[in-house]
Every structure is written in structure tokens, then in C-alpha cells.
Amino acid sequence: MTGMLPDRRHELILRALRSDGPTAVVALAERLSVSRATIRRDLGQLEDEGLLRRVHGGAMPAEGGDEPFTEVASLRVAAKDTLADKCADLVSDGETLLLDIGTTTHRLARRLRGRAVTVITSSLAVYEELAEDPYVQLVMLGGAVRRDYRSLAGFLTEDNLRQIHADRLFLGTSGIRPDGNVLDTTSVQVPVKRAMIAASEQVVLMADAGKFPGTGMARVCGPGSLDMVVTNAPTDLATRSALQAAGVEVAEV
Q1: Contact at 8 Å (CB) between 97 and 118?
Q2: Sign of the CA dihedral running 156, 158, 162, 165
Q3: Which spans are transmembrane here (predicted)?
């Protein structure tokens, strides 16, 4: 474990908390072969990012969690289709696209059938939607399978994303705060979303009316990381002001 990168250490800490529940600093230090001081610094950083909760002598998984894919797929379908139509219109043939996980990006994938584009994704639902399409060049990111959420995640997914560059990312979210911060309910997915943002020339956030203000325990990014927000709801004054101050285009459909 000597010389382990912080990102890898953080991944192992979060994995330990998910599998074992509340875990002491001393146990994490022994498990990762690092000092207790290093673990305490890591826990402080991960808590600041909303990925865990510090308790006396250790840490525990952050409260909250996302809903399984099948439970969300039937919610606000018309709104998701409206957003998907708008986002499909943004795409030009020949582009390389990153599609985030989630039911809204899945609806977008349906509208990319027959298009001469490259789609890179960690979404099993997107893969299944486009796998038989002869026109779409489909690239599947590696990672650990999250069956209930139809996705891949983890350090392998993040490593894959460091090797690519996309023209455009279509990003999902569980909520946008009035200050423009983008949230997610799934701690394991946050590092993947951040890696997708870093790998993309343009970031388009797909957010239906239920995402304002929305919920989420972990901050994915600030408004400065976005280029466009596509929504079917009039954004409130505070949120719109925060987005516009960061130079984000808001497309209401």
C-alpha cells in the first residue's frame, strides 16, 4: 500500500464503510497500511465532500441513498422526454458524447439511435439501448457493476475516463441548490461524475422540475463547471442568478 495515491485511498475507505459500516480510524489505518494522521486527513476531506460522516474515533457511511433505476424510470417521463428531445437537437453528427447514468440520459440515448456519433458511457441502460445500433460507435467504461442502478462505478471507471476526451457530456443530477451547486445522492457515483466533467469540452446538465432544489448529500460540482442547464421548469431567481453569474446558459423547454 506504500505510495498509494489519495484518490485510490479514498475509494478504499468508502468501500470499507459501505461493506463494514462504522469503522475506526485505527482499523482503516491498519487496513491501508498508512498512519492514523493520514486517515484522519482523508476522513476530513471526504466528510467535506459529503461522502461520509465522522463519528468519535472513526467514520460511517453518509446518510441517504439513491433510488433503484426501475423505481425512478417511471417518474416524470414526459418531462424527461422533453429534455431528451432538446439535448438530442444539440448534438451534431461526428461528435463524441459522454452520457452519465440515470433515467434521463437513458431517454436521450433512445434519441441518438441512427446517429453517426460516438457514445461513451458507464450506464448499462444506455448500453442496452444502443448496443445493436450499427450507426452509433459505443464505448463502455469499465468498473464495478451496480445492478440495481444499471451502472458501473469505482476507480476503474475513473481511470478509464482519464484516457478519453469528449466533445460534450450530458450530466444527470439529484438536485441543484439555489447557489448553483450540483448534488448527488450516491457517494460512489460522485468521483465518476467529476471525472466525466474533467474529460469533457462542454458540460450539459439535464434537470427536470423535480431537481429544483432537489436533494443530495454530496456536492458534485459548482456552477462554474457547467456550460448549459436544460430544464423544463422556470428556475427560481436565486438559482438563475447563480448560474448566470458563472456564465451558464439556461435553456428552458
Answers
A1: yes
A2: positive
A3: none
